[in-house]
Amino acid sequence: MDEKQFIEDIAEIIEADPKELTLDSDFRKSADYWSSLTGFGILVYLQDNFNVNIDVNNFLELNTIKELYEFCKE
Description:
Layout: H1 3-14, H2 27-30, H3 36-50, H4 56-61, H5 65-73
């Protein structure tokens, strides 16, 4: 998956305009409304699309869309 599609998918989950997001965007601060369900939505997306399980503590250390993307590529 390319970076643009990844940004668009994250934007959909956090209910943000993908045109306003970059890889350097803080996905929590970019969300119109952040909740634990939003975070869970991202975790489910990563598992379903990348077969990646992120420990909650590791997830809490990630801030930017790029950090999520790089984590998935590892």
